[in-house]
Amino acid sequence: MPIPDSAENQRPIVDIHAHYFPETYLQLVKRHGAAFGAVYTETERGPTLEVGLLKVGPIAPCFIDLGARLSIMDRQGVDVQAMSLTQPMVYWPDEALSVELSAAFNDALQTAYSRHQDPLGWFGYTADALPTRSAGGA
């Protein structure tokens, strides 16, 4: 039996695969990434990141600016997004920068969530995947 179309029975539309690059994360890559082989370039269409053979971007504003993201969500009828980081992630530099990148990402998501609890959720990151921090590490 079909569910009647009413606001009372409306199920939320959830996007469980939405990438986000907080400005604080990007600025850390820009300032410190070169020491670990990362290249940060600003273009007319948005920043690009290169780490080894991996190239990301240009990164569109909706992946950086929450206002742009929320506007697109409204246009698309998406009620909730679970945001996560994508390549190059946080595992390419040394442990100190990896921890700093993780904290920048998680802190930005906590701030976003505190301002927009209904439409935003996230997957946080830790530097625990680094060999020196994992159970098998030195």
Task: Give keywords.
single chain, 138 residues, alpha/beta, TIM Barrel, 6 strands, 21% strand, disordered C terminus
Strand order of the largest sheet: 1-5-6
| Name given to the CATH homologous superfamily | Metal-dependent hydrolases
**Terminal Cα span:** 59 Å
Number of strands: 6
The CATH class: Alpha Beta
Q: The CATH topology is what?
A: TIM Barrel
Report on the architecture of this protein:
The chain has one domain: Metal-dependent hydrolases (TIM Barrel), CATH 3.20.20. Helices cover 30% and strands 21% of the residues. It has 3 helices and 6 strands; from the N terminus they run βαβββαβαβ. It has helices at residues 23-32, 66-76, 95-115, and strands at 14-19, 38-43, 46-51, 54-56, 80-84, 120-122. The strands form 2 sheets. It has a 3-stranded parallel β-sheet with strand order 1-5-6, with helices on one face. It has a 3-stranded antiparallel β-sheet with strand order 2-3-4, with helices on one face. The N and C termini lie far apart (59 Å). Mean pLDDT is 81; it is low at 133-138.
